[in-house]
Amino acid sequence: MIPRVVTLLICTVLQICFGTVYAWSFFQSLLVRQLGWTFTDTAVAFSITIFSLGMSAAWAGAALPRLGPRKLAVIGSLMFAVGYLIAGLALQIDNLLLFYLGYGVIGGAGIGLGYVTPVATAAKWFPDRKGLATGIVVMGFGVGAFLLSKLLAPVLIVNTAGDLPFVFIWLGVIFACILIPSSLLLRDPPVGFRMETADTVSELQEADDTGSVKECLRSREFVTMWLVFFFNIAAGISVISFQSSLLQDVWGIADPSIGPEKLAEYGATLIAISSLCNGAGRLFWGILSDHIGRVRVFRILLASQMVVFGILMTESNPWIFSALVCYILLCFGGGFATMPSFIVDVFGAKRMSVMYGAILTAWAAAGIFGPIYVGYLKDQYNDRAVIYCFLIGVLILWLGFVFSYLLNDERVRLFRPSTERTLRQYGIGSSK
User: Fold this and answer.
1) For 119-149, how does the pLDDT look when each residue is reduced to its tens digit (9 = 90+)?
2) How far apart are CA 194 and CA 24, in angstroms?
3) Above 70 in pLDDT, residue 103?
4) What is the pTM of this model?
5) CB of 70 closer than 8 Å to CB of 181
6) Which residues have a Cβ under 8 Å from the Cβ of 19 and sit 6 or more positions away?
7) Nearest residue to 240 via CA among 333, 336, 365
8) What is the Cα 137 distance to its own chain's centre?
């Protein structure tokens, strides 16, 4: 049997590759300059990717118990790599719709199949340290953008003389060579696997729980968690999708003498550093949520970002602007680290893959809403886009903060009376 630490490493490698999607703004300005696409065009490509990701993740969560992690991960890896190959062909013939199909629909769906699998699998292997394990895995998703924007993509651009079609094709080949062998090693823990530190109440509840997934999906708890998750993602992803161009706007106003090449370099550096913050936030907030609770973490994330977005509305210093963007990415990653453990706490480990997949539809919805409204603002109100972007972000975060007060860390009680009797026999108490 592969040690669970090795399994955790495999899950993290998969997430690093899939997480390169967050380096999208690295390519965005290049596509606008080289192919003449608008910012709205490029925003739609990213939105389609995130929407396909979220919807396929919902299906993958339901299919994971039946198909197993290895099969889903392999399929997702193949689709992700093929998506890049098709995107390269689309760039070669300058076909925007084909690019949407390849990079957006096929590649995005591949990420969704691949994203759920490592997170759910890591949670099964580490029931004693859910926040830490899922935090490490999703940290890889955040770090992926750093590796692509500062290492892999620049090297490929230099070696292909800036030929974007070949850059995308090479990325597809490289990801296939890493992802497929790693996916073949992924598997669930053996039957009977358990940790001695596992909570007795959870084990008893899991053994006798007959509440259906449909009941959970209709519950007030799920709907509220979905909304809070959506608002946190929508605010963050609006910044992720345009952070490079937004910084270039701010820096260009602060120092008009800087040329476009230097501005692009500054933008790429911000992508790299903020992606590290995205990854670090997934680990930091995931561990913190184990100690202070999932709901409290979400309230801190939402409230602190409201302040930061308010400052960013009028901030003209590019250094302070960059630091605040990095904090937003820290909080953005924190939501993804906290939610898997939150799902387990509220709905139980047996339902984790299905419920987590379903809640990732919030990611899909936010992926449509966030990038498109920022792309529209940049095309229509370029000189005021920064102010409008962050003003809308404040409103989004405020709504999430309000809804967070409808949440608590208690488990949804969908158990037979026999469970309550068993719990009382152990002197634990009764379910609410």
Assistant:
1) 888 878 887 777 678 778 878 887 888 888 8
2) 40
3) yes
4) 0.78
5) no
6) 140, 141, 142, 143, 144, 145, 275, 279
7) 333
8) 11
